[in-house]
Design brief:
By secondary structure, the chain is α+β, with helices and mostly antiparallel strands. It has 2 domains: about 5-120, Jelly Rolls (Sandwich); about 145-245, Arc Repressor Mutant, subunit A (Orthogonal Bundle), CATH 1.10.10. It has helices at about 5-10, 15-25, 105-115, 120-145, 145-165, 180-185, 190-200, 220-225, 230-235; strands spanning about 30-35, 40, 50-55, 55-60, 70-75, 80, 95, 100-105, 170-175, 205-210, 210-215. A hairpin with a 3-residue loop joins strand 10 and strand 11 (about 210-215).
Length: about 250
């Protein structure tokens, strides 16, 4: 079976067989969670880091008055818990967005892997820098982009992140997110999300149903979002093939 974490690292660098085997050891243990199930709770003791093996999940927190904020969507090959490495307890909740399989491993295992390979260590920090760039772009959306630009930019981001696993950015992909999830990650109301998504659909930017998303014209959607993919695509540039052309 293909290793999600190996495929993600391969987007950034060439891996030797020994390096592939080091990464695969992080996926030895697999645990299944059902849609909507809480995988770990804020305040839990911090013992394990997770790798997403399959499915989508999200990292979130709630204010005292019950308002939820979602910080990010986690997909196959993504680490979960890196932002909490220096803490003894979880800072955020972690939920399965759909039926999900995660691979937990002790924090010390990651240290062992990175000590054994300079290439894996350097690539790991490159991946973290990309995630920091994604966070900055999300902050721009929260503070400065219009509702239409926010959603268009987010869909472009997800499309390219999905493509990074297989070196191909698809304009059609599974999309298990509901309007309330999009609202909580972009600082909008569900009603505003619904209205904006319908506008994008009616104007042939996207097409979607309860389980899938299709970008009708990637270039057109990127233009609407003022989306420049450099923060995701370096050091390798993915190719849409006959499905559109991301800007270099």
């Amino acid at each position: 079976m293909t290793s999600c974490i190996v495929e993600k690292f391969k987007f950034y660098t060439h891996l030797s067989k020994d390096e592939e085997n080091l990464l695969k050891k992080l996926e030895d243990k697999k645990i299944e969670y059902k849609q909507g199930e809480r995988i770990r709770a804020k305040g839990d003791g911090f013992e394990d880091i997770y790798i997403m093996h399959s499915g989508w999940a999200y990292v979130s927190s709630k204010l005292d008055r019950g308002i939820r904020s979602i910080f990010d969507i986690r997909m196959e090959g993504d680490f979960v818990g890196i932002a909490e490495l220096s803490f003894d307890r979880r800072l955020y909740d972690f939920y399965a967005l759909e039926d999900t399989v995660v691979c937990p491993f002790p924090k010390k295992y990651l240290d062992d892997v990175l000590r054994k390979s300079d290439n894996l260590r350097d690539t790991f920090f490159t991946m973290l820098s990309r995630e920091q760039a994604i966070a900055y772009e999300r902050m721009i959306s929260l503070g400065r982009r219009t509702a239409t630009e926010k959603i268009a930019h987010f869909i472009c981001e997800l499309s390219l992140r999905i493509g990074m696993k297989g070196m191909k950015a698809n304009k059609e992909f599974l999309f298990p997110m509901r309007q309330e999830h999009i609202a909580d990650i972009l600082g909008m109301t569900s009603v505003h999300v619904s209205r904006t998504m319908k506008m994008l659909k009616n104007n042939n930017y996207i097409d979607y149903d309860r389980t899938s998303m299709r970008i009708v014209d990637p270039d057109k959607l990127m233009g609407l979002a003022q989306f420049t993919p450099e923060f995701l695509l370096s050091p390798k540039i993915m190719d849409y093939g006959d499905q559109g052309n991301p800007r270099d």
